[in-house]
Amino acid sequence: MAAAIHAQNGKVVAQLTHTGAKANPKLFPEQGDLWGPSAITDPMTGNTPRAMTLPQIGRLIEDYAAAAARSKKAGFDGIQIHGAHGYGINQFLTGASNRRGDASGGDIDQRYRFLGETLEAARGAVGEISRCSLSSVDTITTKTVLFRKNRCGWPVGWPMTA
């Protein structure tokens, strides 16, 4: 796909996401339970994910990094980590769906941990690529977190070659 787009002088960016409680479990019944930061029922889907363990959170971060590396190998010009619309990253950022009592939950700084570690892992996996960014986020809480963390040096929307 990337080659066909490049042949027409276009650019293409892969968007990476984990849907958490918004996933449709009928699409992958062999995979088992949905994963989310906490076992909180999603008001839109009615799905209740299984609260992820810390090792599962680490695995998901590694999966984002692996997907970023595959995107680069496939010829994409950049990657975008999807952090909006109530999907997985957004579920970690908001206290409405993240009621964890460990390092990935609690106050706003701890709820940001998953996103920060995901961005760092993705950037580390792709090395030189034209762009790696975070998609817009859509809650006041999330915007507050990104503003605070970005001022503290967390990489949000950074060019990969810088």
Please tell me about this protein's structure.
The protein is α/β, with parallel strands linked by helices and 162 residues long. It has one domain: Alpha-Beta Barrel (TIM Barrel). Helices cover 39% and strands 10% of the residues. The chain is built from 5 helices and 5 strands. The strands form 2 sheets. The protein has a 3-stranded parallel sheet with strand order 1-4-5, covered by helices on one side. A two-stranded parallel sheet has the order 2-3. Helix 2 runs parallel beside helix 4. The longest helix has 20 residues. The radius of gyration is 16 Å and the shape is globular.
Layout of secondary structure:
Blueprint: H1 2-7, E1 13-16, E2 35-36, E3 50-51, H2 54-73, E4 78-81, H3 88-93, H4 108-126, E5 131-134, H5 140-151
Parallel strand pairs: 1-4, 2-3, 4-5
Write a brief structural summary.
The chain is an alpha/beta fold and 162 residues long. It is built from 5 helices and 5 strands.
Number of helices: 5
Major sheet details: 3 strands, parallel
- Using the coordinates shown, work out and report the CATH topology: TIM Barrel
Specify the structural class: alpha/beta
Low-confidence stretches: 137-162
Terminal residue distance: 27 Å
In terms of DSSP E residues, the strand content is 5-15%
Report the average pLDDT across residues: 80
How many structural domains in the coordinates?
1
CATH homologous superfamily placement: Aldolase class I
Helix content: 25-40%
**What is the number of strand segments?**
5
> What radius of gyration results from the CA coordinates?
16 Å
- Strands of the widest sheet, in order across it, are 1-4-5
N-to-C series of helices and strands:
HEEEHEHHEH
Secondary-structure arrangement, i.e. CATH architecture: Alpha-Beta Barrel
Query: Would you state the CATH class?
Result: Alpha Beta
Shape: globular
